[in-house]
Give the backbone structure.
Amino acid sequence: MGEKKSVTIKDSQAVMPRRRFLQAGLAGSALAAAGSLGGTKPVGAAGLDIPDWSRYLGASVDAAPYGKPSRHEATVVRRSVEWLTATRESSVNFTPLYALEGFVTPNGICFERHHGGAADVDPAEHRLMIHGMVDRPLLFTMEDLMRLPRVSRFFFLECAANGGMEWRNAQLNGVQYTHGMIHCVQYTGVSLKLLLEEAGVSTKAKWLMVEGGDSAGMNRSVPIDKALDDCMVAFAMNGEKLRTEQGYPLRLVVPGFEGNMWVKWLRRIEVGDESWQAREETSKYTDLMPDGRARRFTWEMDCKSVITSPCPENPLMHKGPNVITGLAWSGRGSVKRVDVSLDGGKNWTEARIEGPVMPKCLTRFYLDGWEWNGEQVYMQSRAIDDSGYVQPQMTELQKVRGINSIYHNNAIQTWRINKTGEVENVRLA
């Protein structure tokens, strides 16, 4: 693994037409007899053997009052990188994208980023204050907020540093680590616009300062136009109250903007006419340019995609037909198209988008019936959003941003599939 000045690209791998793929015998023993799935064995007239687990009564309905995944999925967990930060209380862990289906992230494996550890907040004592350039300063209890009209929306949340370690070269071998600072859930809460209108925001107001109730007093400036557009004050995700690590009992939702602005344990919103020049928007979360200057307030998460299978965690086990799948997203709008390349970006095939396509939401894509012949492959995906933005190659991104950046890396990811079926993170020159 490492930077490759040049690589030899193999011939494009064929994509088997769907009809021929199905005709190959996906219905039971015909497929097995044809050997289309490699290790599949023919079955006799008697059919399946009776396994041991079907001979005994299973667990009762009360065995797990709060349900958990199967014990056979125990390895599907958030993971951190040992050397990434000095302390776990101010660090990040990663969503296991390789194990997910669809576009919704289960609450228990949504990535975390803390600046002073996860706060243990008593909802009965928690308050949200709105003040500053308003007609009526307000102080809300959780009970107050629960009495207001609710909204539910699906959005992705991505840390601006997602992929930040990959700027210079391929570093981490796993999609969980290269792209796992992201999740997508259904948030439920109250429109921030509703709360601001209730407080009576001054016409001279330009910014909000949002502050969390954690030990770091995490705060960020948010432009008023965004706050009055699609921001939410959320108290639930995926049908249940926020998890502690996701900001229980209250967090800000800033769709399409970098995750650092989605302040957790939200306690205070101050309205003003200038940005607050907070730590996270001056010394941090800025884009260092080749000339040494840094761009600020680059909030939007650009169009991006990644193949989640095959990937380093999901190697190929069989020659013949396989499914390529991944996720795409854009903070500017909706994903319009995703292309897949099997020769390092020389040629592209349009993938099939599955499920709902919603703005600022993860979108699942597939390339069905890809026929792997056991040869080495350089696999990429490229997303295009409804604004016309095309996800760039890393060489294109570096021409503008240089190599000393951290944030907002939305470059095309390359997976090299070796002849053994193993998958590696590589960089093409």
About this structure: Helices lie at 18-23, 29-34, 142-146, 175-179, 192-199, 224-227, 394-401. The CA atoms of residues 335 and 420 lie 33 Å apart. The domain at 3-8+300-428 is CATH 2.60.40.650 (Immunoglobulin-like).
